[in-house]
Amino acid sequence: MNKQEFLQKYVAERHGTDSMKWDGLEEKFGKGEKDLLAMWVADMEFKTCDAVVEAMTERSKHGVFGYSIVPDAYYTVFSQWMEQRYNFPIKKEWLRFSTGCVTGIAWMIHAFTDPGDACMILTPVYYPFHNVVTNSSRKLVKADLHYQDGYFTMDIEAIEKTVVENQVKMFLLCSPHNPAGRVWTEEELDQVLAVCKKHNVLVVSDEIHQDIVFKGNRFIPAAVVSGGKYQDIVVTLNSATKTFNLATLIHSHIIITNEKLRGIYDRFASALNRTEVSIMGMVATMAAYQHGGEWLKNVLEVIGDNYDYLKETLEKGLPGAKVCCMEGTYLPMVDLRKCVKAEKTQEFIQKRCRLAVDYGEWFGDGYQGFVRFNLATDPLYIRQAVERMIIEGKNG
Ligand SMILES: Cc1ncc(COP(=O)(O)O)c(C=O)c1O
Q1: Are the CB atoms for 328 and 209 separated by under 8 Å?
Q2: Where are the domains of the chain?
C-alpha cells in the first residue's frame, strides 16, 4: 500500500467522537476555542490496523465481558515482539499489568518509595511525570537536559550531582524521550544507569514510545543495556497504546525481572484489588503485535515525512524557528524564541495561528517559547499549521 492509499484508508475525522484532542478543545484552551486545529494530545488521527478492529469486533460478538485471565498465547506474542525487535524476550513471571503507563509510574512510586522520598526526572519531560511525583507526596527533583540548537543531551555530571545532593531514591526515565525527541544511545543509557546503580537508585523506565523510532536510530530497553547489566535496578513500563493508537483501552505492561522487586510490587498490588486486564485492551494488543507490523511501517513513513516537511518548510518560511530533533516519538518541539517573544508564544500560536499545541513551559522551567507538535496526523493538517505560522510570522 502506498502512502496515499494508506492515508485515504486510515485517516479519520474525529470531531464528535468524544475525542479529548478535538472535542475537549474548549475545556483546555478556553471558551470559543473549539475551532482550533488540534495538534496537542499524544494520540493519532489514524484508525488502528484492521487486525485490531477485527479481533475486537469478533470478541464483542460473544457479548460477555466478564472477568478475564491472560492466556499463555498473550505472553508468547508479547515476548516475541520484544525479542525480535529489542532482543528482550519477556518471561511470563516478569509481567504485570496496569491501566496505563502513568498509572504504572504512580504504582511504582507507591510500591518502592515512601512519602518525602526524592524522585528524579530529566526536564523538559511529559508533565504527568511531574504531577505523579508531587501528587504522591514525594519530593520532585529535576535535572535539566542540556539543550543546544534543537538537540537535547543528558548532562551526566549534573545528574550525578542531583542524585547525591538530594538522596534520590527513584529515577523516572523517559525512553525514547517526550518531548526531547531523543532515542537515547546505549552509551548514554549506560552512563545514566551506572550513576543509578552506584547510588542505589531504582529506575522506572517509561518506554511507551519504544516502537516509534526513525532513520537509523535504535531503541534499546534500559533492561538490556550493556548485556543486561542494569536489569536488577530497572522496572520497565510499556504498551501497544502509543504505537497502535489504543490509549483509551487502558492496558499496559509492567516488566520486573528482579524477583525481590517483584515481591515488593506484588505485596503493594495486593492492596489495589484490581490489577487484572481489560479484555479489549488485551485482545487489541495481541492482534496488534501479531499482525500490525505493516500498518506500523506505513504510519512511521507518514510521520517521518510530516517531520521532514515541518522542518524544511517552517525553518525556511519562518526565519529563526528551529524544529528540534525527532529521533523517536511523534512529538517534536519547535523553538520559536528567535521569531516570537517568548511571552507572546501563546498569543501567536493560539490567537493568531488558531493552533492547539502543548506549550514548552508545561514540560519544564525555561521552555517558554517552545511548542510541541503532534505529527501523527493527516499531512494536510501539518501543511495548514505551517502555512498559518508562516503567514502570521510575516504579519509581524
Ligand atoms: C512518555 C509517556 N508516558 C506515558 C504516556 C501516557 O500513557 P498512558 O496513557 O498509558 O498513561 C505518554 C503519552 O503521551 C507519554 O508520552
Answers
A1: yes
A2: 3-49+293-394, 53-291
